[in-house]
Every structure is written in structure tokens, then in C-alpha cells.
Amino acid sequence: MRQYARPFPITRLSLEARVLYTGFLLFLVLGFVSSVWLYADSFGGLSGLGATEYYRGGAAQAAPASGAEAAGGPALELPPDGPALDLPGETVTAAPMRLEKPARQVMETFHFHLFTVPVVLLIVGHLFMLTALSVRLKVGVIAVASVATFVHLLAPLLVRFVGPRWGWLMPVSVVGAAVGWLPMLVWPLWEMWRPVSASPEAAAE
Questions:
Q1: Could you give the CA distance from residue 18 to residue 15 in angstroms, rounded to a whole number?
Q2: Which of 2, 77, 145, 179 has the highest CB neighbour number within 10 Å of its CB?
Q3: Per-residue pLDDT for 105 more than 90?
Q4: Full-model pTM
Q5: Is the pLDDT of residue 204 over 80?
Q6: pLDDT at 6 (0 to 100)
């Protein structure tokens, strides 16, 4: 751990360490991509209303009618002397209902993430500490990532158990986590593998 107590450029890591850390960071990048898909599928976008409906239940938005439905359905040829039919001009698919998430399910998800996400944050933060960025910038990025991650873990509990007015915390914490986590994932990869010219002292050795 001495390399974290004093300046230690990430470029001085051994080749096997860089390969291992690169694989770890790439796995996390794929994990974040899948998280974006899951978030969009669950909440529909950066909307507090979507988060509220996901955890507290409600009617999902109906898909707009298309094709024959938008035109009023298929054309029917009726005999002139037959009964008159009153057909609607447009049919719309009924909006599916979302049930309220069970309290135990929300708490179990919070419990699981509370013991796993901080460990990943600790590892990624240590790798980010080895970069050549300024101390002030590294402190700011780590602080944003830590606070946004904590809020994102806590937001479902507030929405489910306190009230729908906390739904806005979900999209805000997602944006904050992206601002904090993305530099910690991408910048160490860049510094580990970018070409570095040898210093005069190293060349003399």
C-alpha cells in the first residue's frame, strides 16, 4: 500500500498488473453499459416520474396506435340492407399497470448493493489515485462519485418508503454517478497504455 501513500505513477506498474487492472476496468465499463440499458428499460429515461411509478406502481404510458389501428382498423364491406355498426375512429392499446415493488425486495436490493458497490468504488478509486492528475481534481472526482453513489443507493428507499416526492433523486444521482465514475474508469486506462518517452535518467541506466 506504500504506492498510495506517496506519488506513484500508474505507468510504473508491471505489465501483468496493467493487464489485470485493464481487464477489471473493461469489465466495469461493460457493467455500466448494461446498467444504462436496465435503467432505461425500468424507468424510461431521466425522469423522476418514471422512478416513482417503478417503485410505487401506476399505469405505464400507452404506446401510440399505428397502422390499421390508427386508421380505425381494417375496412369492412357491409351489405347495404344490413344493420348499421358504430365503429370507433381510433383504437388505443390499454396502458399496462405497474404494481408497487414489495418492501422486502427493495430492501434486499439495497442490502446487496450496500456491500458490493462500495468495494468496487474503493478499488477503482485507488487506481484513479495513481494517475498523474492533480490532487484537487482527484479529490473532487472521488467525492462526486462517492456522494452520487450513496444517493443512488438510498433513493429507492426514499421513493418506496417515504414518498413519491423523492423520485427526482434517481435521475440526479445517475448523472452525478456518471460524472464521477467515468473519469475513474477511463483515465487510468489511458495513462496505463499511452506511449511514454523515457526520461534521461532512465535512458542513462
A1: 5
A2: 145
A3: yes
A4: 0.73
A5: no
A6: 55
Residue 8 CA to residue 25 CA, distance in Å, equals: 19
The dihedrals phi and psi of 98, each to the nearest 5 degrees, come to -105, 125
- Select from 201, 190, 197 the least CA-distant residue to 132: 190
Give the 3-state DSSP-derived string for the chain, with helices as H, strands as E and coil as C: CHHHHCCCCHHHCCHHHHHHHHHHHHHHHHHHHHHHHHHHHHHCCCCHHHHHHHHHCEECCCCCCCCCCCCCCCCCCCCCCCCCCCCCCCCCCCCCEECCCCHHHHHHHHHHHHHHHHHHHHHHHHHHHCCCCCHHHHHHHHHHHHHHHHHHHHHHHHHHHHCHHHCCHHHHHHHHHHHHHHHHHHHHHHHHHCCCCCCHHHHHC
**What's the CA gap between 62 and 55, in Å, rounded?**
19
C-alpha grid cell, residue 195: 506511449
Write phi, then psi, for 97 (nearest 5 degrees).
Answer: -90, 145
Q: Which residue has the higher pLDDT, 187 or 44?
A: 187
Sign of CA dihedral 130, 136, 141, 142: positive
